[in-house]
Amino acid sequence: MLLKYFSYSIVVVWLLMALLGFVIDDSANEVVLSQFLATPNSQSALGSDELGRPVLERLILGAQTSLFVAVGVVFFSAIIGTTIGIYSGYMGGLTDRVITKIIDVFLAFPGLLLAIALAAILGPGIENVVFALVVVGWVGYARLARAQTLSLRHREHILAARSLGVATPLMLWRHVLPLILAPLGVEATFGIAGAVISEAGLSFLGLGVQPPDASWGSMIKEGTRYLLVAPHLVLAPGIALMLVVLAVNLIGDQWRDYLDVKSRQSRS
Question: In the chain, count of helices (H) and strands (E)?
């Protein structure tokens, strides 16, 4: 129960930080050399970075960046992957075999390395980061949706709708998709955590968000040069990144356990 409250509290704080980012003005990017590598003080709760910019305000802007990327990647990946997976599992035959082979080709490449290659080709920028992560992220949703559809395609209500001449798109939308939303939701929670980590990794490598925009990954990258004299530059975004990913993964685990009928019966 304590972990449940902890995880939801961290996610709520993350969302509030992202919303607070809309009211932060250009002071977060203002260079103040008199505050060069300042430690936490009354003027700046988390100190200042190598250009005298407040770490707290940039941390909030980094939360907004990570949330935008995570929501965008999961939204588009889920739509593309679910559509392809449901269609493949329902149609079967040659269509299913071709789509399965395409999925296997994408799985043959390490996801993050493929995203790095795409980001390098497309150039840095938050939109290109979202696109690169969607290209490698839809595969998981497609596999899950296909597997779930294969187990549902011979259910009585599906066969009855087919015998009544219901169009295939309408059947998939009304009779298949609602039954697989729960496992897809669990997959989406882990997708959010993965997208946050991937965005931070790409920004750390210089392929993501570019200065002066803030990202937790780029903040860690910039802070590593001053790790011995100003460890707060790395600790603040690093701890924030760890807590958000941990909390989202815990929520995914809790949701998965809740949807597991056998697990609920054993607890009862």
Answer: 11, 0
